[in-house]
Amino acid sequence: MEQMFSKLKFITNGEGFIDISNDLNLLIKENKFCSGIINLTSLHTSCSLTINENADPNVLKDLKKYMQSIVPYDSYASLSRNKEEVFYEHYQEGADDMPAHIKTSLTNINLCLSFQKSKIILGIWQSIYLWEHRFEKKERSISVHLIGEKCPNIYNRI
Amino acid sequence: MEQMFSKLKFITNGEGFIDISNDLNLLIKENKFCSGIINLTSLHTSCSLTINENADPNVLKDLKKYMQSIVPYDSYASLSRNKEEVFYEHYQEGADDMPAHIKTSLTNINLCLSFQKSKIILGIWQSIYLWEHRFEKKERSISVHLIGEKCPNIYNRI
Amino acid sequence: MEQMFSKLKFITNGEGFIDISNDLNLLIKENKFCSGIINLTSLHTSCSLTINENADPNVLKDLKKYMQSIVPYDSYASLSRNKEEVFYEHYQEGADDMPAHIKTSLTNINLCLSFQKSKIILGIWQSIYLWEHRFEKKERSISVHLIGEKCPNIYNRI
After folding, report:
1. How far A92 CA lies from chain C's nearest CA (Å)?
2. pTM for this one?
3. CA quadruple A67, B107, A108, C109: dihedral, nearest 10
4. Helix H or strand E encompassing B100
């Protein structure tokens, strides 16, 4: 078994989801790993990793809306006052600061997935998402660690 | 180190839990893996994997009841109107459709567990559960991936 | 690749967080593992593992306060009656019994992290926390499983 360490960077665009499944599968292929595990860790405390439906975009919309409803923004840090008062003690970076930390701990920062034939094993309706919880555009780094068997080098045989 | 890929199928019976710990330990034993990791991925977006108490069945009952209380069913898709109105935009498969996706992201779809002496390392009160979030009976597939050392073949030595 | 199994014990002091990052890095170093994965499983059903901010202690304070707000204590088991009535069916060990099980399933019991140069790959603001959900002091065991490459033994070369 061999291993390889890498980092993937993504630019997010406010609260929402980026489907990173293809980038991860590409990394596996390019590094000629055939079967093994791909271990993912988001290196931040205000965005997460989640696996959910890739067919109807309303699933992601509802998921975001739901999370906003159970983790209210900080009205102390917020400009708007037209809502229930919420006072987090950690609010220095704005109304989305502490909510982003909470949303991160309610979902996942780490996923360990299996791959076979250079492709991550997922159901047909599943994609892997980087879930941004901050309002602003951010550069996010995901640590990607492959452990497994390399593909047999067919071209060398010719 | 060696690896092995498999899939386990379970028939669920509406919202609730199936203890899959024994099936997983059996798979490890039958494949003669001695020590390593067992990587589990639920291949669906409306059921999850969780580890919780295996002694008092009321724990699972309360866990389900709690999750129903913080993730309300869609009253638009629901027949019953006697509750707070909730309108998800993704509701095509019924009142439990979007709630099931949300519950999945609030819990886990992926667990990477360690095993030794062909047995998953868990506390005595812990079991691994497949947690069904849909109302209807479903066939569910769990990807099971073993990486580790095989057991020494004692019988061959005789 | 080699593997090693260990257990780390921690004494918690009521609801709250213990930063276990240094203990884990030390274990990797002492066992001369250079690169690989460290697989963590909390062997309990009423405490969890989470990764969150290590800079402002108010983050952990708010995180705990938030979790208490969405998972109410059992008022039936609780001495205090001055709150919304909550009746869990599993309450034998007190007002924090069932809430602790719920908080455990809403966060993580298992983390699989990558390490390189004998150090867990994390962002600079991230620490790994053991999150105690019970009121009382408890002894908690975390299963720690290392898989990876050992460090080259430099001293032997001299």
Report:
1. 10
2. 0.94
3. 140
4. helix B97-106
